[in-house]
Structures are given as structure tokens and as C-alpha cells.
């Protein structure tokens, strides 16, 4: 009699952030779905440890696939889900399930929509010489 082979078992639960392959791909798309319309700066502010260029490249990748469409604004591009894409209903269903599974991202996005954008007064922070009004 031959013994049954050992089947490897998953030790940890499946992380919902890896739905679209990687958390760096899933979370920007989820933020656009929650906000309705968002640019890369707004999405990057909501996701910790992410930068604007990475988020912009992910959003442009989804736009190349046809999932997102962009609109030119006075300063930058605004992205939103394309309702005419072939898989639009399925993607919206997946994103709404993710929104229910991870409610903390909706709270973060709504707080960011409510609060004004933090402004920096000076672009050369830390470079000014002491007792000097110029650098």
C-alpha cells in the first residue's frame, strides 16, 4: 500500500491586501473606489509607507488596462473607475467586498477627505543658516 503524500497546509490566513497581486496594487485601487475620484497625491497620503510616484505608476497601469479613466485637472490628473469597462461590475463587487473586509481604509480615506491638505511653508526645511533670513 502506498502512503498518501503530505499536502502542504497554509499556515496563515490569506491577506485581502493581495487581491490584485500585491498590496501596492490593491490599496490604490481601493482608495480610488472609496473616494470616487482621486489623484495620486490623495491616494499616497492615505496609504502609509507609499510614495506618490509608485502610486501614480500603479494608477497609470490600471488606466492602461482600461480599469481606470483619467481626467485632466488644473494641476494633475484625477483617476476614477471606468463604468464602461467589460469587467467593471465584477471589479466594483470585489472592491466593495474588500471595503467591507477592511473598514479601516474607508475611515482613513474619509478623514483625509474631511481634513485640509497639510501645507508646508518652506521647501528648504533644515537648510537655513542660523540668524539668516536667506540660505
Based on CA atoms alone, the radius of gyration comes out at 20 Å
CATH second-level architecture: Orthogonal Bundle
Distance between the termini: 83 Å
Tell me the series of helices and strands, N- to C-terminal.
HHHEEHH
CATH class: Mainly Alpha
Major sheet: order of its strands?
A: 1-2
List unreliable stretches of 5+ residues.
none
Q: Any descriptors?
A:
135 residues, mainly alpha, two-stranded antiparallel ribbon, 5 helices, extended
Characterization of this structure:
44% of the residues lie in helices and 9% in strands. The model has no long low-confidence stretch (mean pLDDT 84). α1 packs across α4 (88-101) and α1 crosses α5. The longest helix has 14 residues, at 52-65. It is mainly α. The protein starts with 22 loop residues before the first helix and ends in a 21-residue tail after the last helix. The protein has a two-stranded antiparallel ribbon with strand order 1-2. It has one domain (16-112): Winged helix-like DNA-binding domain superfamily/Winged helix DNA-binding domain (Arc Repressor Mutant, subunit A), CATH 1.10.10.10. It is extended and about 85 Å long. It has 5 helices and 2 strands; from the N terminus they run αααββαα.
Amino acid at each position: 500500500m502506498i502512503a498518501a503524500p503530505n499536502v502542504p497546509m497554509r499556515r496563515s490566513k490569506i491577506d485581502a491586501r493581495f487581491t490584485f497581486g500585491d498590496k501596492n496594487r490593491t490599496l490604490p485601487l481601493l482608495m480610488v473606489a472609496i473616494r470616487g475620484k482621486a489623484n495620486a497625491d490623495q491616494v499616497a497620503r492615505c496609504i502609509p509607507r507609499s510614495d506618490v510616484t509608485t502610486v501614480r505608476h500603479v494608477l497609470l497601469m490600471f488606466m492602461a488596462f482600461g480599469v481606470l479613466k483619467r481626467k485632466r485637472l488644473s494641476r494633475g490628473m484625477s483617476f476614477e473607475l471606468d463604468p464602461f469597462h467589460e469587467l467593471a461590475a465584477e471589479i466594483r463587487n470585489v472592491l466593495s467586498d474588500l471595503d467591507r473586509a477592511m473598514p479601516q481604509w474607508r475611515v482613513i480615506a474619509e478623514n483625509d477627505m474631511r481634513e485640509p491638505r497639510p501645507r508646508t511653508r518652506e521647501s528648504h526645511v533644515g537648510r537655513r543658516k542660523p540668524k539668516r533670513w536667506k540660505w
